[in-house]
Amino acid sequence: MNKKQTRLFAVASTGIAVLVLLVLTVDTHRQFPALTNSQNITESVIRGQNVWHAKNCINCHTMLGEGAYYAPDLTKITQHRGTPYLTAFLKDPSQFYDEQKHRRLMPQQDLTDENIADLIAFMDWVSKVDNQGWPPRPILVTGGSIPGTDLSVAQQADRSASGASGELPPGARPVASGNDPIALGEALFSSVTPTCNACHSTAPGVNLAGPTLAGLSTRAQVTIASPEYKGKAKTVEEFIQESIVEPSAYLHPGAMYSAGGTSFMPTTYGKDLTPEQIAHLVAYLASFK
């Protein structure tokens, strides 16, 4: 190439690059309303965004991949936890996590009921933004880290208990691949929306947003036989199914699991899952003796 050809090449390639950038920019802005569901930005959502900024939530949390990676990512938090849980949590975080045990404790923000409702509305709007799969995975913080790993204490215990080290949860039997209902239920446990393992551990004594499922089958038998139980289940399998589709039929003891007679567990599984999928989940959970 001579100097003239080099100059023409540089000018042409720069012009093409600028044109491509302009086209992509225009196309991105064209898609913004659909990607962000801008029609759902209500006054409550706007007020909630103001609360988010006023309380500097991003100093600890991430949202859409932005923020400080000290506390859990909140991009999909309303789908993982639900409004009742988040309302109770924001009113008094100390009822849910202990600083000595979990090492990290969200400070009391002294939010009004309106502040809380608006903040949840904002986070719910964010959860429905088409973020093109970003961040690539939820960032879960449930306790202090295990030295030499990037896992929290609860996550490490859960991995060990659920078979990451070749061991099974106490009382659970080995599962086969293919059409084995327990294996299919185990797959659903970490793939349904919201995922069961976002709130429940399978390790003994590791309680997250929901109680541990270790020993669930044995506990279910005791619960059904107790006078405090007012549900309709007669067997362990019926009790587990009832807990999935009607979580408020029996309220597990503990202020962090329910409030005002309503369980914090989402009530959507009965509508979102087929009877066959629920049966698979029941089979898997009933294997925890």
UniProtKB/TrEMBL annotation:
Region span, Disordered: 154-179
Example of a GO MF term: electron transfer activity
Organism for this UniProt entry: Pollutimonas nitritireducens
Name assigned to this protein: Cytochrome C
Residue ranges that the Swiss-Prot or TrEMBL entry lists as coiled coil: none
UniProtKB keywords: Electron transport, Heme, Iron, Metal-binding, Transport
PANTHER family found in the cross-reference section: CYTOCHROME C-553-LIKE
Regions of compositional bias (Polar residues) in chain numbering: 154-163
Pfam families tied to this protein: Cytochrom_C
